[in-house]
Structures are given as C-alpha cells and as structure tokens.
C-alpha cells in the first residue's frame, strides 16, 4: 500500500496545522446592516487589533492575550467604520477585527505589535484564538486593499458587518479574497524518497515542499503537476489531496497534496528555487526532528503544512 492508497486518518490532518480550528459562528449569510454596531455595543464583544501586518498583543503575566475590550480600542485610533464582524464565540460573544492607525512604535509598554508568522512560530497565541486571528488578519488586509472600487475608482463602503463591500456609485460588489496555493510533496515510490527544495529567502539549511499559486482555469491536480515540473523538472502522475491551511500572509489557503513522481531527474528553475533534492526516509525523518548530523538541515516548523506533509508521509511508512 502506498501513500496514495492510505485510509482516512483518525484525526483530520487539517486540524493539526497552525491557524486552523476556528470555531466562531460566522453567520455570514444572516447579517443585517446593523450587525456590526450591535456587536460593538455588546458587553461580551472582544476585538483583534491589527496594524501594518502585525497583531497587537497585550502582556498577561508571562504570556500574551490577543483579545481586547471594545472600550480599550480608542487609544489606538481604530478605524471602526471599516471593522469586520468575524462571528460569535460561546453563543453570543462577538469577535471583531479592527485596523488601528497608531504607529506601532508608539505603543504603551503593555502592548506589543508582532507579525503573524512570529506569533505562531513562537507559540504566543494558540488554539482557537490563533485561527480567529488568521481570519481577522486576512479580512483586514482585504478591506485595506479594497477601499476603492476597481471598476470606477469610487470609495467603497462596508456591508454585512464588513463581510462584503459595495461601491455606492456603480453598485459593484466586492467579496473577501482567498488566494489558493498548492503545496506538494512529490514521492518517488519505487525508491521510497521525497522531493524537497529551498528558496533563497528560507532560513539557512531549511528544505520544504514545493509550492505555487493555483492559476485561473486550473484544477488542483494540474497545478501540482505544473508547479513541480516548472520548479524541479519532475513529472507527476497521481495526485492526492491531504490537508489545507489558512495562511494569513495576507489571505492565502495552502492546499497540501502528495504527488507521485513519474520521473526522477531534477532540473532546477533557479529563478524560483536555489536547490532541490531527493531525501530518503531516514534523511526526511532527521529533517523533521531538526536533529543535527545532516549538515544541520531542517524542515519548516511543526505548525506549517509542509511539516505535516513530510511527517505524515513518514508515519504512513512505519
């Protein structure tokens, strides 16, 4: 039995990655035009604050909290008009995302502005709150980039608690954006090895799965085949979906797949990656464990979907 014949997992693979597990009741199809105002007025409302690609965290003992009371927002110059109602926690506890205009360098000592990637890598916020943060960060990034109509150039306005935007001049409707990216682990089943590469911007020694944007008019499977061949010169036959991951940098969905290699000779596209090689099972296991001995090479951190693609392939072969 190969990885492409693997039975279902007891635990859904997508639930194990960072930024997953968001349990908010979004009610995206049941919002009136007063829903944001009503949410802000609720004594149970809590807000996520974002600015310049960073979330604003407040110190709490030895750790951090990411949720702020609504009456705490004012000192940070919040853009309430363009806030977004994310949904409801614990029944009727609104969760709201707000862009704040205060310069992060002018924050009080009790507040830290930290980029989203560092928050998950350092484990500053975990579980459900991390998934909610990803939702809020992606929506605020979308709001900020769609302040004007792409059809006539007029300023757009928030509707449905910020979950869509409308141009008051031409009536053009705008909806939240998600950019799909395929990320794949190519498997040489005959030789029991996997294909990993590294981009110039990776930390020294880190190898990961190949990845690329899904293009218009393209299936997920064909995107896996195209990207693998473009970057590494490897032809892919079978493709099997494995897991997905919200990735709020700024509003991406990572679609994790396994691809069965139909060829093995690597031809690198140096415009996209600086190295690519086959790793046998022992070498891949050493990467995932971050042990030394393999020229100090490593894989992405445990929260990344690439880490899970490698780890789950290794687990399947036991």
The fraction of residues in strands falls at 25-35%
Report the uncertain regions.
none
Number of strands: 16
Task: Please identify the structural class as seen in this structure.
Answer: alpha+beta
Helix count from the secondary structure assignment: 6
Q: Assign an overall shape.
A: globular
User: What is the H/E order?
Assistant: HEEEEEEEHHEEEEEEHEEEHH
Largest sheet, strands/sense/barrel: 7 strands, mixed
The percent of residues in helical segments reads 10-25%
Mean pLDDT: 93
Terminal CA distance = 12 Å
Write down the Rg. Answer: 22 Å
How would you describe the overall organization of this protein?
With 318 residues, the chain is an alpha+beta fold. Helices cover 21% and strands 29% of the residues. The protein has helices at 35-41, 116-121, 127-145, 220-232, 281-289, 305-316; strands spanning 46-51, 54-60, 63-65, 68-69, 84-89, 93-99, 111-115, 157-159, 164-166, 173-174, 179-188, 193-198, 210-213, 236-247, 252-261, 275-280. Strands 1, 2, 3, 4, 5, 6 and 7 form a seven-stranded mixed beta sheet that branches. Strands 11, 12, 13, 14, 15 and 16 form a six-stranded mixed beta sheet that branches. Strand 8 (157-159) and strand 9 form a beta hairpin. Helix 5 crosses helix 6 (305-316). The longest helix has 19 residues, at 127-145. The radius of gyration is 22 Å and the shape is globular. The chain starts with 34 loop residues before the first helix and ends with a helix. The model has no long low-confidence stretch (mean pLDDT 93).
């Amino acid at each position: 039995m190969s990885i492409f014949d693997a039975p279902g997992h007891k635990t859904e693979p997508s639930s194990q990655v960072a930024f997953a597990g968001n349990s908010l009741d979004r009610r995206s199809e049941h919002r009136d035009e007063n829903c944001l105002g009503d949410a802000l007025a609720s004594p149970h409302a809590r807000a996520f604050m974002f600015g310049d690609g960073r979330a604003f965290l407040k110190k709490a003992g030895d750790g951090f909290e990411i949720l702020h009371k609504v009456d705490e927002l004012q000192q940070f110059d919040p853009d309430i008009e363009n806030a977004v109602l994310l949904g409801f926690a614990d029944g009727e506890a609104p969760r709201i995302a707000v862009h704040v205009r205060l310069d992060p360098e002018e924050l009080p000592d009790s507040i830290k502005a930290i980029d989203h990637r560092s928050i998950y890598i350092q484990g500053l916020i975990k579980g459900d709150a991390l998934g909610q943060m990803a939702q809020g960060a992606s929506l605020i990034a979308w709001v900020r980039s769609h302040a004007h109509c792409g059809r006539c150039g007029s300023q757009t306005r928030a509707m449905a608690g910020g979950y869509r935007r409308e141009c008051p001049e031409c009536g053009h409707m705008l909806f939240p954006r998600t950019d799909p990216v395929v990320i794949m682990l190519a498997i040489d089943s005959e030789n029991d090895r996997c294909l990993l590469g590294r981009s110039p911007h990776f930390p020294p020694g880190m190898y990961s799965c190949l990845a690329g944007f899904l293009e218009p008019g393209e299936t997920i499977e064909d995107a896996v085949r195209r990207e693998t061949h473009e970057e590494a010169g490897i032809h892919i036959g079978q493709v099997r979906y494995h897991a997905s991951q919200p990735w709020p940098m700024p509003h991406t969905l990572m679609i994790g797949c396994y691809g069965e290699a139909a060829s093995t000779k690597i031809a690198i596209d140096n415009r996209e990656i600086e190295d690519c090689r086959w790793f046998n099972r022992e070498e891949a296991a050493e990467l995932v464990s971050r042990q030394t001995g393999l020229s100090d090479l490593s894989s992405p951190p445990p929260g990344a979907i690439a880490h899970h693609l490698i780890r789950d392939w290794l687990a399947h072969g036991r």
